[in-house]
Structure formats: structure tokens, C-alpha cells
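Appendix C reproduces, verbatim, an entry submitted by the partner laboratory led by Prof. M.T., so that reviewers can inspect both the input and the predicted structure.
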Amino acid sequence: MIRINLPVSEEEIRKLKTGDEVYLTGKMVTGRDSAHTYLLEEFQDELFPVLENTVIYHCGPVVKKEKGEWFFVAAGPTTSIRDEPYEADVIKNYKVRGVIGKGGMGEKTLEACRKYGSVYFHAVGGVAVVLAKSVKHVLGVYKLEEFGVPEAFWHIDVVDFPVIVTMDSHGNSIHRDVLSCSRENKEKLFKELK
């Protein structure tokens, strides 16, 4: 298991390879569709230092507030491909070193990972409550009133958040490989059925 402290340098991220199992510790940010659109409408100065050299997590958390303090109840990953049109520019403009989600992303994001020194981390779906236990503090929330709880930017402090590198900064993608292998097997099965 590889341990990465956030924020992280481009050099450290470029050492990672697909298949690496990683524990993330430090500060990261959640962001889904509305967040990505907002980041690209115009450069958001107040969010640059929050995103620079850290990770954006495709997550619509379940949260609660007690005695004026926010807590994560569930923190499962959402499907990442919806943010494919935006992610490359978010990585480039905000110097994001990693994206967490489920299901992988496309060639545009993979190329941005290669060019700018970022990776895609896969988080396991179906264990949202377990993942929430890694969230130790909510450091802040941006655009809560405008976007609502699931779409807001949640700035969080995590300890040993478990992920797997499935797209690295060297052009490798487990998602692409699985799709290619599946297509080959499908064609082979169709030929055998004929």
C-alpha cells in the first residue's frame, strides 16, 4: 500500500502506476457536475489554493450538522464520465493532481493526466459509510446555497482514504484496457456462435 500526503507534488504523482493501491491523507475537495461547470465559467481565485496539488473527488456526500459543525455520514463515489467534458481543463487550470470517482474517464482526461501530471483514482462504490469514516474534518464548504449539499464543494481532511490508480500519468488506463479486452472477447464469441 502506497501512502500519499495531500497536497502532493507532480513528481510524486508521476511515480504512481495503474494498479497501485493508495491511502490518501490530507486535504481534498469534492466536486460534481455543477462544481466543474462553475470552475470553467471563469477562473475561480478563491478555489485555486484549495484545489492546487490535491485531489477532486466526484462525490455527492450525505452530511449532517451538529453544534455548528459538519460531518460526513456517507461519502461514496459518483460516476465520473459525466465530467469528461470538463475534467481536462480543471486539471490544467487548477493544477489538480488527482481525480477520484468510479467507472473511469475518457481519452481527454487521460491525456490531461499525462500532460499535466495527474492520475485517476478509483474508489469502491457501495461502501459510502465506510469511506465517510476516512473524512476526519470538514474544513469548509463552497457554493452550498447555490448548488445544494451533493453538488457543493466540500473541503475535507481525510486520513487513509483508500483508492486504486486506474489511470496514470504515463498514458495507461485500466478502463481502456478492460473495454478493449471486452470488445475482443465479444467479437470472438460472436464468431464462435456463427
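Strands lie at 2-6, 21-30, 55-57, 62-66, 69-74, 98-101, 119-122, 135-142, 153-167. Additional entries are available on request from the coordinating office.
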